[in-house]
Write a structure and sequence with these properties.
Length: 188
């Protein structure tokens, strides 16, 4: 019933992952419509999305869903919407997020900002340290990178939360207003 008349090739499906065939504006309206259908008030949905977006700026890769759900639950946000928000942290945006968070954290701590970092090596060492319970290796190899990232993510967290909250809240209020106008026109 809801299938395509012309099936997409694998190449077309991959292309649509990077650039929606319908365009970014329509894709944005689709996401807004999906969010407006979630249970809850515009505040709770917007707060949930904002928690997910903000958590994406933390260095806790692999725990973003759990942390976003926990923060959304703490401020009475929508937990499902927080999962939507974590889409902001993805393989395309993580390199930019990590670099900006790390260098701003180093700048805030007064450390050398010009020193380069191999993030794949840092995450490999952190996984190895967690699996083998070798916390001396964690403190020696991983903490000098993760520590500044934790400090640097604070302003990004706050800014991302505020921006995403107000954008989503405004979009949901607009959708709600349009829905009310549509209902009123049907009654007349």
């Amino acid at each position: 019933m809801f299938r395509r008349r012309q099936h997409q090739t694998r190449l077309q499906k991959i292309k649509n992952l990077f650039w929606p065939a319908t365009g970014w504006k329509r894709y944005g309206r689709y996401i807004t419509a999906r969010l407006s259908r979630l249970n809850g008030t515009p505040y709770s949905v917007a707060a949930g999305v904002a928690c997910g977006v903000a958590i994406s700026f933390t260095p806790f890769v692999g725990f973003h869903f759990v942390l976003a759900a926990a923060t959304a639950w703490l401020i009475r946000g929508n937990i499902v919407a927080s999962a939507f928000g974590t889409i902001a942290g993805n393989p395309w945006t993580f390199p930019f997020i990590w670099i900006s968070v790390l260098y701003s954290g180093r700048w805030m701590l007064g450390e050398d900002v010009t020193q380069k970092v191999d993030f794949t090596r840092v995450f490999e060492k952190s996984m190895h340290a967690l699996i083998t319970f070798d916390f001396s290796s964690f403190g020696q190899d991983v903490w000098p990178i993760i520590g500044p990232m934790l400090i640097g993510c604070i302003p990004f967290y706050i800014l991302a939360w505020l921006i995403s909250y107000f954008l989503v809240k405004r979009a949901l209020d607009k959708m709600d207003k349009l829905r009310k106008i549509k209902r009123m026109s049907r009654k007349v």
